[in-house]
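Help!! Second protein's tokens look totally different from the first
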Amino acid sequence: MCIIFTKTTVMTIFSKIINGDIPAFKIAENEKFIAFLDIEPLVTGHVLVVPKIEADKIFDVPDDYLAAMLVFAKPIAHAIEKVFDCNRCGISVIGLEVPHAHMHLVPISSANDLNFTRPKMKVTPDELKAVQAQLKAALGSVD
């Protein structure tokens, strides 16, 4: 779970999650990426996909990571669509809230479901654990 530093040397909250210094509701992880639940989601099932490199902006991520990020996210998106009542899994890259490149995977039924100016949900750790269990179970059964 080592972080490769690029343009910034500031340790972000995501880096602390990657290093295990801060707990997270992990959905999936490999040597390059980690996916975990947003603790203040737009809607239930909102997942963050984060590269294990320190890069502030998504287009500062090396090309091989950038391409692999979508491949890593694909089964998670399918699991989101399987678990939650939605039209599809939306994807958004905002990058203003944490200076560490990441993408949002959000179950959506309309474009407004990706409106980041709306108030975020307040959820309990038990609610997050339940969503985590649903998504992990669905990941085990995704084609």
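Here's the second one for comparison:
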Amino acid sequence: MPARVTQTMLNTQLLRNLSGNLGRMERIQNQLATGRRINQPSDDPVGMTYALRYRSELSANEQYLRNVDAAVSWLEFTDSVLNQAGNILQRVRELAVQGANGTNPDSAMQAIRAEVEQLRRQMLDVANSTLNGKYIFNGQQTDRPPYPDPTTAAGQATDGFQIRYEVGPGIELPVNVTGNEIFGVPGDADNLFKVLDDLVTALGNIDYAGVNQAIGLLDSRMDKMLSARAEIGARSNRVELMQARLQELGANLTALQSKTEDADIARLITDLKTAESVYQASLATGARLIRPSLIDFLR
């Protein structure tokens, strides 16, 4: 026996259909307003899983890029400082060669000695260089100057631990060189500050043999400084390669995230117009269905 269809049933079904049409329009309008296809997990549970994964990987990749940028800054600054130290050392060697000439009068030797003393002070300033408030040559003790006492620099040892930046999953790269590596440890024959102290003394005493000995030790320290600078250059090249790789990975992850989350605006506009037409048609149909009133039934 067929079920009896009442006016209440027609009204209820009409309201249900209108509510569904309005809900569809609301979802489309929300996607247009946010520009995102997925605004809550129920929109696409599987897509939301992928979207969260891409966000997590992008966040980690951005942190690696920040680490790489910090490493690049540290390495570039260190290379610049080592270049300054190399220029100072080269000038000291030139003066030492002049001082080793036995024809210099005493006044010339004292003038050379005075300039070497100033260069030693400048070398100490370089050795205590800071980047963003951190001493770059004192290992992990970046809050302390590696050579706090200029009068006893030759007997001071720096912290020997490395500063390492994580530039990829499980990839750590040391970015610093210590003062011990650059200027020598206490007791080394070619400890730079000892060599400079001895050179100043030799020049003041008109000790040509001492000046000649200092030249050989300066050459030894210069070679070690150049080796350290070459190592910094190799690390810089590796960091730049990592930076390019991370930037490419970030672009790929962003593209995948966009495909998963972002809305197709042109398609949504078309869908919205279609939904509006359906809604208007539903209203027009409903107006015809519920038009009879109690007076119509009494006639």
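Reply: Different proteins will give different token patterns, so don't panic. The mean pLDDT is 84.
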